[in-house]
Each structure stands twice: as C-alpha cells, then as structure tokens.
Protein: Cell division protein ZapE
Amino acid sequence: MAEQATRLEAGTACSLYLYGAVGRGKSWLLDGFFQSLEHPHKRRLHFHDFFAQLHQGMFTHRDQDDALGATLDGLLQGCRVLCFDEFHVHDIGDAMLITGLFKALFERRIFVLLTSNYAPEGLLPNPIYHQRFEPVIRLIKAHMQVLEVGGDQDYRSHPTAGSQQRFTQGHYLWPGSPAQRQAVNLPQGREPVQLEVGKRHLHALFSQARTVGFAFDAICEQPTAVMDYLELARRFDHWIIEQLPDLSECSIAAQQRFINLVDVLYDQDKHLVLIGQQPLPDSLGGSAIDLARTRSRLGQLNALGPAGCTG
Structure:
C-alpha cells in the first residue's frame, strides 16, 4: 500500500483490488491508505451510496448521448483517486452499468482502490449471467493488481473492534421485554406514522426527531430499495427495527433487503437497536449470498437477552 502511494505521486501506480472474507481488515487498509494519502483530488465511497448516485445521474442525463460520462463528470468532479468499499455484483442490470463504469474510470486514468468479499472471478456468481460479466473481470485483471487479504481471524469479532463507531454502540434485544427496552432507553409513548420516502409511503412504528422505528415486515418484506434506505439514513441517526424473524423462513428478496439495510446503516454509521425473539445467530439463517457480511456486522452489536443470557 505504501509503495502504491509513492507510485501514485509519481503517476505510475496500478489500481488495486483487495478481496477476502468478511472482517479481515480490507476496509481498515483502505481507510488507512485514504487518510495517509496527501492528494487533493481523492474520494472514498461506499458501494450502495455510489451506485444510488450513479443510477440517479444516469436518469437525469438519460437524454444525452453519453449519459454515463456526464454522470461521472458530476460525481467525480476532478477526482483522481477513487476508493470504493464493499464492491459486489449480483444484479445483471448493475453488471451492465459496471462494465461501462470501469471502462470509463480506466480511460480517465483514475486510480481505483476497491475492496470486496469476492475475488474477481466470484463476482456475479449466478451461472445464468456470469459469462456476460467476464469482460469486466478481464478488464479488472488487466488494469488492477489483485491482492487477497487473508487470515483466520474476523477482526470485527474482537471486543474493541469499532469501539469508536456509533453502529457498534447499538444493541440486539431478545425477546424485547419492557425491562430490556427501558435498559437501552427506547422511546415511550410511540405513535405509528406514515413516512414519505421518494414516491412511496412507509409505515413506521414511530418517528421522533432523528429517531425512527420500523417493524421488519414494513421495511424488508415490502418492495423497498437501497435508495429508500439511503434517504431515510439522511433523516434519521437512531434506528429501531423490531420483530426480526428467522431469516431462513423469509424470501430471498426479504433477506437481500435486510442485508442492504444493514449495509447502509453500517456504512453511514447509524445507531441501531434490533429486536428479535431468539439469540441473534439463530435469527440469521438463510441462503442469501452476502449474509456472512451481515452476520459479522450485526455481531458487533451489544446483545441483551433474558436474565442470565447475553447471546
């Protein structure tokens, strides 16, 4: 990483692709590189936030011949170093947009550092679509140095991991008794409310200043999207999500929405109180591809169970 920083200043750096299992320190390396880099035109972005802005820009510039170019001009604004955290591809529509994105970034000679839980060959793993994404994989390998960040330790599981983050100051409660709710100072006297988010209305259990509460069904079983979560995250710093079911009994779509929601809350460093009916590990079954990342992130919450239980 230090060598790449030196080469970057000299204009000879090769973009980097860091991959590995969850909690192995990829984001820590990215953050350290970004913070130590004395470069005036650098940006650090999360996958969900960047892609939401990219889609919005493409819609805004849809009548232009080069909608992607116009969108990137607005998003990057002279950026020469782009650090891109938690890169993953599961949707063929996103994959087609990513093809153009990477071509444009490399043509602009922008240094890209990205992290992913997947080796390039593991991106868009759906066998129905994977072959159509292989040109992007070849592009990544041609323009980026691919490095695995390995090891057996999930550093997020360390007691001091993320001690300065608001997210990790949150709690997981089960079964969510009145005494538990009082112990973590959950709001009293709550009234349901309809929140306008984009062009839809979402049913919230309550909304008070910068605090909001949702039932799992209302936020994850409904056709919500990442852009909804990002908008809500801009409005609320403290989140309470109740009635977490056993994810293994939910649809893949609901599991994926929950994964996306946790990603947004973690990336935006929001305080979360999650309430279920059983120990957290027992609630996080399921077969959605990225649940390992969700388990790792939620594992940083402070667990409060029935008397004598901490799981």
Notes: The CA atoms of residues 20 and 190 lie 43 Å apart. The longest strand covers residues 238-244. The first helix runs from residue 2 to 10.
